[in-house]
Specification:
The protein folds into two domains: 230 residues, Type I PLP-dependent aspartate aminotransferase-like (Major domain) (Aspartate Aminotransferase, domain 2, 3-Layer(aba) Sandwich); 138 residues, Aspartate Aminotransferase, domain 1 (Alpha-Beta Complex), CATH 3.90.1150.10. The model has no long low-confidence stretch (mean pLDDT 96). The strands form three sheets. It has a seven-stranded mixed β-sheet, sandwiched between helices. A four-stranded antiparallel β-sheet has the order 10-12-14-13. The two termini are 35 Å apart. Helix 9 packs across helix 12. It contains twelve helices and 14 strands. The protein is α/β, with parallel strands linked by helices and 383 residues long. Bound molecules: pyridoxal-5'-phosphate.
Length: 383
C-alpha cells in the first residue's frame, strides 16, 4: 500500500474557508464578533439547550464548568478512569481530587452501579463522560446525584449530537462540555463549548471565561477568572461546520456502519454494545482484541502501522498514571473493566475523507492480523 490511512482528518470545505476569510477581512479575529454569537445560538439550539458558550477547547470547558460549580480544594469529583486525561486534569486544576469509578462492559461508560460506593462526605459531583460517542446512562446517574445532593456535568467532547432516550446530550446534566479539536466530529482546530439549561449559570460562566470581568463595569474584576474565550476566526470555521453537519454526520455514520458490518462476530475481535436508548455520535470507531485472538493489541497496532494504517490505543486508565496512581492506590478500588479496555482497546481510522475501500482495507488488515495470531496459537497448541 502506498497511501497512509490516517486515524483522523478534519473535513474542511470552501464554506469554512470563505467564512474564515470573511472574519479576517472584517478584522474581528479575537473574542468578539458575529460568528461567535451565531455559533453559540446555533449550537445551543442544535443541542436542545437554552444556552451555549464558546470556549478555547474541551479541557477549558470542563475546568470552567467545575469552577462555576465552586469545586475547590478538599472536594472530590467522581469520574470514569476510562476517558481522556483532560477529564481528570480539570478536577485537579480546581485543587480537588478525581475519584475513579469503573465503566460498564457493554457501553464503556461510567457504571451507575459502581458510583454510590465511591461517594463520600467530600463528593461534590459526577462527571459523566459520553465515551467514544456513546451516551452515559444518565437517568440512574441523575437519580443517584439527586439522592446525594450532587450535580452531574456531562463531558460530551466525543459525543457531539448523540442522544440519550431521544434527548440531546449536553442538556441532561447541570452543564455539558464539548471539544472541537481537529479529530472531533465538528472542528475548528482547537475549540470547545459549554451548554446549560439554567440561566442563572450564564453570568458566572461568562465572567469566569473572560478574566472575571464584571458584565456591568468594563475592566473591573470582582473575581479571579480565566482567558478561556474562543476567537471569532475559529467560530467562523465552526459556523461552516454547523451548516455542513448533516453531511459530516451521514458520512461518518456510514463508515461506522461499515466497520460494524465487517467486524462484528469476527473471532478474536469484540465491539461495544450500543444501548437501545442511545443514538451514538460517530466519533472514533473502536474494537478490543480478545485473548483468544492469540495476539495482543500492541502487536496488532504495529502490524497495521506497517501496512500504512494509523491506529490509536484506547485510553490508558487514568488511575494508573503517575499524577493519579498514588491517590487511587490509597482508595484501593479495583476497576477491572477499565483495565481490560486499556489493555485491549484499539481505535480505528474514522473520518469523512475515508473511502469505502479504505475502510475495507483497515478491516482486511485487522482481521488478517488477528487471524495470524489465532493460527499461531493453534500451532502452539498442536505442538
Ligand atoms: C472525553 C474528552 N474530554 C475532554 C477532552 C478535551 O478536549 P480538548 O482536546 O479540546 O481540550 C477530550 C479530547 O480531546 C476528550 O476526548
Amino acid at each position: 500500500m502506498n497511501r497512509r490511512i490516517a486515524i483522523a482528518e478534519p473535513d474542511l470545505s470552501p464554506l469554512e474557508e470563505g467564512y474564515a476569510l470573511e472574519a479576517i477581512r472584517s478584522t474581528w479575529i479575537s473574542s468578539t464578533g458575529a460568528y461567535l454569537t451565531r455559533f453559540e445560538q446555533e449550537f445551543a439550539a442544535a443541542c436542545g439547550c437554552g444556552h451555549s458558550l464558546a470556549v478555547s477547547n474541551g479541557t477549558t470547558a470542563i475546568h470552567l464548568a467545575l469552577a462555576a460549580l465552586n469545586v475547590g480544594p478538599g472536594d472530590e469529583v467522581i469520574v470514569p478512569s476510562m476517558t481522556y486525561i483532560a477529564t481528570a486534569n480539570a478536577v485537579r486544576y480546581c485543587g480537588a481530587e478525581p475519584v475513579f469509578v469503573d465503566v460498564e462492559p457493554s457501553t464503556w461508560c461510567l457504571d451507575p452501579a459502581r458510583v454510590e460506593e465511591a461517594i463520600t462526605s467530600r463528593t461534590k459531583g459526577i462527571i459523566a463522560v459520553h465515551l467514544l460517542g456513546h451516551p452515559a446512562d444518565m437517568d440512574p446517574l441523575l437519580e443517584i446525584a439527586a439522592i446525594h445532593g450532587l450535580w452531574v456535568v456531562e463531558d460530551a467532547a466525543e459525543a457531539t449530537f448523540a442522544t440519550y432516550k431521544g434527548r440531546q446530550v449536553g442538556g441532561l446534566g447541570r452543564i455539558g462540555t464539548f471539544s472541537f479539536f481537529g479529530n472531533k466530529v465538528l472542528t475548528c482546530g482547537e475549540g470547545g463549548a459549554i451548554t446549560f439549561q439554567d440561566p442563572t449559570l450564564a453570568t458566572r460562566l461568562r465572567m469566569l471565561r473572560g478574566q472575571g470581568m464584571d458584565p456591568r463595569q468594563r475592566y473591573y474584576f470582582p473575581i479571579v477568572g480565566f482567558n478561556y474565550r474562543l476567537t471569532n476566526l475559529a467560530a467562523a470555521i465552526l459556523c461552516g461546520q454547523m451548516e455542513r453537519r448533516a453531511d459530516i454526520l451521514r458520512r461518518r455514520r456510514e463508515i461506522v456502519a461499515r466497520y460494524e458490518a465487517r467486524l462484528r462476530g469476527v473471532p478474536g475481535i469484540a465491539l461495544r454494545t450500543d444501548a437501545e436508548w442511545a443514538v451514538t455520535s460517530p466519533w472514533m470507531f473502536a474494537a478490543t482484541i480478545e485473548a483468544r485472538a492469540g495476539v495482543d493489541r500492541d502487536t496488532v497496532a504495529r502490524r497495521l502501522t506497517d501496512d500504512g494504517i494509523e491506529t490509536r490505543p484506547l485510553f490508558v486508565p487514568i488511575h494508573t498514571l503517575p499524577p493519579y496512581r498514588v491517590e487511587h492506590a490509597r482508595r484501593g478500588t479495583e476497576l477491572p473493566v477499565t483495565h481490560g479496555l486499556g489493555r485491549d482497546g484499539i481505535m480505528l481510522p474514522t473520518h469523512t475523507l475515508l473511502t469505502d475501500a479504505d475502510v475495507d482495507e483497515v478491516c482486511d488488515r485487522l482481521v488478517a492480523a488477528v487471524g495470524a495470531g489465532r493460527a499461531a496459537q493453534g500451532r502452539l497448541r498442536v505442538a
